[in-house]
Amino acid sequence: MPDGSCDFLSESWLDYLGFTREQGLGRGWADTIHPEDVDRVVANWRAGLATGVAVEQELRCRRADGTYLWFLNCDFPLRDDEGNVIKWYGVLMNISALKETESALQMREHELLGIIETIPSMLWSTSPAGEPTHLSQRFIDYLGAPFEQIVNRKWMNFIHPDDREESVKAFFRAIETGESYNLINRMRRADGGYRWHETRGEPLRDPHGKIIQWYGFSIDIDERKQAEDHLRDTRIKLAKASRLATVDEFAASIAHELNQPLTSISANAQAAKRWLNAAPPNMTEVNSSIDRIVRDARAADETMQHIRALFKQEPFDKRDVNIPNILREVVRVVHGDPKKRSVPIECHFEESRPAVPVDQIQIQQVFINLIVNAIEALQGQQVPPLVTLRAAVTDSDRMLIQVIDNEPGVHDPERIFDAFMTTKEKGMGIGLAV
Question: Is the pTM of this model over 0.85?
Answer without folding.
Answer: no
